[in-house]
Amino acid sequence: MSIKVKQTCLGLTCLLILASGCAEVPMFYHGNKVSSVPVVALQEGSHTSATWETFDLIIDYKYIQDGNSLEISGQAALSQHYQMMYTNIPRMDTYIFFLDKDFRVLKTAIFVNVWTNNTKDIQDFSKSYNVPTGTTGISFGYSGQVQGIDGKGSFWELPLK
């Protein structure tokens, strides 16, 4: 084989390997069960306000569901622990999970996709989502890293199984 053919084959092989590792966000955690965090039962047609909270993250939100459309807005912030102990957020990924009656993930969507670098900042959000058929509730998840004078830390709450 000529060198050009070998290089082409190698390039295509690398592309295939790279592409096989990619998954669309809606399929993240699909079928996995949300078990250790609050689940919000959706109420169609009425404005609902609430707070979703874990040790790491607090989300104050309001939403309205109309058929297969969900409008949600509010604010998200790291808990006091992270605000007092760390100064920076090098990485923070947050998700909204659409769940069936058994709390299994039907769909995953990016929730707050831009976080400022400061742990004390409050992140405003306003999003619209298509609600998949069979959805009875929602929950949130996250994976992040914080950094401060005394070091760094990682934290997450995701439906891994």
Shape: globular
Give the number of helices: 2
Low-confidence stretches: 5-23
Helix/strand order, N-terminal first:
HEEEEHEEEEE
The class by helix and strand makeup works out as: mainly beta
How much is the average pLDDT?
86
* Helix percentage range: 10-25%
Cα-to-Cα separation, first versus last residue = 46 Å
The major beta sheet can be summarized as:
5 strands, antiparallel
What's the count of strands? Answer: 9
The proportion of residues in beta strands is over 45%
Radius of gyration: 19 Å
Summarize the structure in words.
The protein has 161 residues and is mainly β. The chain is built from two helices and nine strands; from the N terminus they run H-E-E-E-E-H-E-E-E-E-E. Strands 1, 5, 6, 8 and 9 form a five-stranded antiparallel β-sheet that branches. Strands 2-3-4-7 form a four-stranded antiparallel β-sheet. A hairpin with a 5-residue loop joins strand 5 and strand 6. The radius of gyration is 19 Å and the shape is globular.
